[in-house]
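Here is a tokenized protein:
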Amino acid sequence: MRIYEDIPSRPLLDAGRAVGIGVFDGVHLGHQELIRRVVAAAQNSRLKPLLFTFDRHPLELLNPSDAPPYLTPLEDKLSLMEQAGAEEVVVAKLTPQLLSTEAEDFVRQVMVERLNTKWVVAGWSFRFGKGRRGTPEMLRQIGAGFGFQTDVVQPVTVEGEVATSSRIRELLACGRLAVANRLLGRPHSITGKVVRGRGRGRTIGVPTANLEIPYRAALPSRGVYKAEAVVGCDRYPAVVNIGLRPTFNEEPVLTVEAHLIGFRGDLYGRSVRLRFLERLRDERKFDSV
């Protein structure tokens, strides 16, 4: 898969593109349906499937205090896009200039003149252009003037829940991991480097790996989870505690601690991916420890 680290400086004239556009945080079932349609349109019309996304969430520029945590860091998002069939991805660098571009100008300057767009797929809630004034219907109308078709993906639901990034974040935050995983189409995961903790788990016979919490990562709510830990090419069943070290009377610090069942060796400094499979219980405090 070819990755453009910003909007291409020269037009993509080798072939027309079927373009899917969005933030794609989480690459959930709704996004997967969108990508499926992009790939199908490309195959049917002899185009190249291309996804257009951003290097960060727009709110990080517009209103950082309201910017949501990420379900997937950029590296994971790109990997999931490739698995879904994308041949090219444009990761546009969000700048004040880009965010202030009028919707019509964005379509003409980026979609048409740079990406050589012949077909566009967007989600029902997609907004673009200055002040988020651009809507899927506006995209359809503008696109007709430039000769490309627009396909709007309607809400994808699972058991009455709509698959959106914001809803999945809400579900994780309130402890409804099973529903969040269903909307993602896979277990929610985080990846972090193992750092040194206080070593107290070893003193009570349960050595744990303390993960450095990734930047702006969307964590499940505090509690104990059944998980799978991925270390390099190896996988281990794991029990993960997310909490404020409730057992010990110290300044509360949010931690992610994983006990890898069957692992032997030193994890310090290594990268570990935790795939959250099931919420087991809330965290508890044991005064006798």
About this structure: The mean pLDDT is 92.
